[in-house]
Amino acid sequence: MHPDFPDKPKNPMKFEHYALNVPQPAEMARWYVEHLGFQIVRSSGDEREVHFLADETGRVVVEIYRNPAGLTQDFPAMHPLSFHAAVVSADARADSARLQAAGATLVVEEALPDGSLLIMLRDPWGVPLQLCQRARPF
Questions:
Q1: DSSP per residue over the chain, as a string?
Q2: Does the pLDDT value for residue 1 go beyond 70?
Q3: Quick check: 131 and 119 in contact, CB under 8 A?
Q4: What are the angstrom distances between the C-alpha of 33 and each of 2, 58, 86?
Q5: What CATH homologous superfamily does 16-67 map to?
Q6: d(CA 19, CA 8)
Q7: ∠ CA(71), CA(72), CA(77), 5° rounding?
Q8: Which residues contact 82 (CB under 8 A, 6 or more apart)?
Q9: What is the pLDDT of residues 29-80, one digit of tens each?
Q10: Which of 49, 54, 57, 116 has a CB 3.0–4.6 Å from the CB of 134, allowing a cystine?
């Protein structure tokens, strides 16, 4: 329990997913499956091309879709500290090199005083993607 938030709700909610409205959801989903090891847990065959992607634990899910009723963000123009997706990496430098070979671009590599290594990349669509090699994992 965090000391700043001592009271737990009687019916706590669980995180279900976060969503990104993107221009090329099928291609983006394929890249995340192939290069990050995510799995498609649900998808639609309609024009919105909805893909729900989960990590190997199934604990965190991202929805990637295209819906013209909503604006897509200009991810390449956004500062990565405004929004980014973060994944755990056992070897962030090796994963960074592998992902760059697959079309990602390096933004910054940051070694923290506690021994953690954070590497910020952009996926091929400009979405900020952080590799977290933490000295003390969550």
A1: --TT--PPPSS------EEEE-S-HHHHHHHHHHHH--EEEEE--STT--EEEE-TTS--EEEEE--TTSPPP-GGGS-TTTS-EEEE-SSHHHHHHHHHHTT-EEEEEEE-TTS-EEEEEE-TTS-EEEEEE-SS--
A2: no
A3: yes
A4: 34, 13, 15
A5: 2,3-Dihydroxybiphenyl 1,2-Dioxygenase, domain 1 (3.10.180.10)
A6: 26
A7: 125
A8: none
A9: 999 999 999 999 999 988 889 999 999 998 889 999 999 999 899 999 999 9
A10: 116
Comparing 16-67 with 75-138, is the CATH topology the same? Answer: yes
- State the Cα–Cα distance between residues 72 and 23, nearest whole angstrom: 7
Fold held by 75-138: 2,3-Dihydroxybiphenyl 1,2-Dioxygenase; domain 1 (3.10.180)
> Nearest-CA neighbor of 53 among 78, 19, 102, 8?
19
Look up residue 37 and give its two tokens.
């090891």
First-to-last C-alpha distance (Å) of the chain:
13
